[in-house]
Amino acid sequence: MTLRDIFANISANPSLLLWFLLCVPLLTFLISIWQNPNTLPQQSPNRHFYAVLAYLACIPGIFAITLNMYLFLFERQSIWDMNLITQILPIITMVGTLIIIKRNIPFEYVPAFGKLSGFVTLVFAMIGIMWFVDRLRIYAITYVPFHYIAIGFVGMLLLIRFGWNKMF
Known about the structure:
mainly alpha
């Protein structure tokens, strides 16, 4: 089974994915309603629920963003061929869930949320560097050994990560 087959099956029977992607922000909203507004964010018992809901929303959302970037940058997919259920709805779910969580508790109090943002940074940096290398067509005009290019790639990732940590 290929990834294309999985997306074709989801597109043919979208009810389970729709149910999941609509329930995550709805559950986040319900938890935010039941939250006691007088509790401090670091003592909130709901922060662990928010962490689980953030991961449930962000993993499909990050995958959808990464897939969209790949399809548009490397495969040259037209925007008219986008599948709304697998390419747009996970992103909307992620953004909506994170907005509801941010309204109720700062992200620094959500356990392990920093790991998720670090992962997103690295994924976007890698895709950006791969797109840049793809457009330059370095492999066709240089005689530089591959291990130097790999070392430069890892160095750029470390530099981007260092800059991101200094910026925020």
